[in-house]
Structure formats: C-alpha cells, structure tokens
Amino acid sequence: MKQIHIIYSIAVISLQMFGNANICSAKGIIPDRTNQIIIYSNLTEAKPTFYLIFSAKPIPATMDRAQLQSLVTKRNRKDLLILKMHGKEATKPGRFDYFFGTIHDPNRPWNNGDDFHWQDWENYSADLWDNIAVAYEPPPNKKFTKVAINHIVIRRGGMRLFDSRAKNSHPNKHKILFPVSKRNLWPTTDKYPLLCLGRLTRDFKSQFYELRGDILKMAYGDLGQTDKTKYANRGHAWCSEFASYIYRANGIDTPDPNAMDVHWKNLRAYFEKNGTVYTQREVSGWSNNMKRKLIKPGSIVSILTHEGKSTHTIIFTTWRYNKGKAIESYTGISGCNKGMVWAHPNLPLPPLNWSQGKTDTEIPNFDQKCFFAVPNMTKNITAITH
Q: Which of 30, 47, 299, 333 is least crowded, fewest Cβ atoms below 10 Å from its Cβ?
C-alpha cells in the first residue's frame, strides 16, 4: 500500500505542476512543448522540400499546383494552412524532423522564421491539426522517380496524434498496426498527390489510446487542442467545461458551460440524478471485474489537486491492468486551464489505507470531491476489437 500511496502522490503533484505551467492558453500551439512532424522517406536528398497541409476539414487526394503554391504565400483561409518545409537536413538517413514552436529548433531552419511564425497559429482554426497531409516538391530538372513515405509521426503539445511506428496501445499493450500508404508522391505537370492522414489519425488514436464509444472518440479528436473558447465563452478554468461540452455534443444534458460555471458540485448533482456516482475510495475496494463492469469508458472522474485545494475533472478512458494483479490505475483525458486537451497516461486510485491518519473533516471532503460519475450512456459504448 505504501507504493500505491507514493504513486498517487506523484500523480497529484504532476497535475499541480501542469496547472501552474507558464504556457500559452490561446488557440494554436503551446510553443514550449513538442509540436513535431517526423517524415521517414526513401529520399536521399540532403535537404528535401515537403509541403505540410493542415486543415480543419478532410483533404482531397490531390491538389492543383497553382492552388497549393498560392496558398503557401497568401494564407487567406482560416481553416487551411500550407507550410513549405525546406532547408532542413536529415536527422538520420531518411528521417526529417520538423518542429513548430520554440522548445526545439528555435531558429526554425526549415524557413529561418521568415515564412511562418509560431504565433501565427492563433490566426487559424482551432481544429487545424485534425487533417494533415504531405506533398513532395522535387528539385528542379530532376527526372521522374518514386517518392515513398515509410513512416510518419505527429505530436502536438507533446501528445501523440499519430505514429505509424507504434506496435502496441499505450495503456495495456494491445497489438496495433498502422502502415502508411506507399503512394508515390512525385507530382505530375499540374497535380500534387497528397498523403492524407486525417482518417488514419482518428483510427490510430482509437486503437493506441484504447477508445470505446462516441464520447471518447470525440474527446480524443481534440487531443492537443489549446482553444478554451471552443468549449466555453466564459470562465477561466476549463476542465469541467471541456467534459460538459463533449457530453452535451453526445446528447447528455450536463450543465451548459456557456450559461454557468461548471464544476464538481453541479456535475456530481447532475449525475446523481442522471446516472450513478461512486466515491473513489469505494471503487478502490472493488474487485477487478466490478471495476470493469461498473465504471464505463467515458465516465467522469473528479480528483483533488494543488494539495487538496482544487479539483480537476477528467473523462475516464480505460483501466490499466496487469494479469493476475489488482487494478490500481486508469487513463483519462481532460481540458486544463493554462494548457490544452491532455491525455493522462497513468492516474492512480487512492490506496485502501488512505483514510488512516485523516481527520473527520478530511474524509467526507475527499469523498465528496473525489468520485466516479457514470452517466446513462449505453448507446455511446461500442466495442473495439484489438
């Protein structure tokens, strides 16, 4: 039990540090976290030229030459951004890393900061990373050849949106496989073939994060999102607002974040009438089968942060388990003030002996604020096979 208590304390401390981080809260990207696209290719060029296409809407399989090159310079659409990636040498043979922000490559060698500044992300749609595509620009006068992309990795704010190299899911190591299409990206006279990653990204997140149901698929669709105003036009903290926005979009009528502050009290009150609420200490004492049976994917979890002075609302994803051992932790996703939509990889249940040494005031306060809330959402739970 001592080990569980240490893990629980570390997780709470990490949430405290995350909540106090000095980071940008506007839409776009958080510059001091990893925003990265890695392209693995058969190219032997020292500094190849790619176009990275970011779009809030699905992208067609080809794009006109004139249109693509015009959008690189004009940037007159808020739902579409095309960046010309050039001047960057391979990190390793066949591997090309492109970063956006300040934590890596602060001088942006792919454009020296002249073509696009990281602050400019704020001028575009909050959903710009939902659909990403890659095009290739061959050197002048080079004869026709084949250009294959072997792997792609996409990270936004440190969150993994896509990784064709991944073989196992994160929580419980289920086998997954996401090969990138071997489409030839060599352009024709008037067209650029595109490697479109929107659908692959959505499928990858479903399997990598072990998602079940529409609620979780929608929540993880915004992984890395930094724009609080998408979820609420009022208030400052937005963990509960994010959760309520996702629920309301899936037909569960939680408190409206644009009409009132959403917090643990009114969320708990709602689910006491429209679902089932269990204290975290109660859930800790259940058998593994009972935990799996009663806590559904997409449930609410409320925890304490900042040494018990604040609460944080998380959407439950799945239990983490080791064969033959008691389930002691879970994964989840949340919106966070001064931050982004964040995937929590390992959140511990409170240890069974948590109440030892606690006062008669601390125990009921903990049980009121630290709970699982399971809504009536059977229609939103769909099985995913691995």
A: 47
> Beta-carbon neighbour count of residue 340 at 10 Å?
26
- Is residue 323 one of the residues assigned to a domain? yes
pLDDT at 377: 64
Residue 167 and residue 247 share a domain: no
Number of domains comprising the chain: 2
pLDDT of residue 378: 53
219 in any annotated domain: no
Tens-place pLDDT, residues 193-217 = 999 999 999 999 999 999 999 999 9
248 and 146 housed in the same domain: no
68-71 long-range contacts, Cβ below 8 Å, gap at least 24?
68/135, 68/192
Q: Which has more pLDDT, 203 or 383?
A: 203
| Nearest-5° Cα angle at 129, 125 to 135 | 115
Q: Are residues 366 and 320 in the same domain?
A: yes
| Residue-number span of the structural domain to which 281 is assigned | 2-24+227-380
Specify the pTM. Answer: 0.90
Pair type for strands 159-163 and 300-305: unpaired
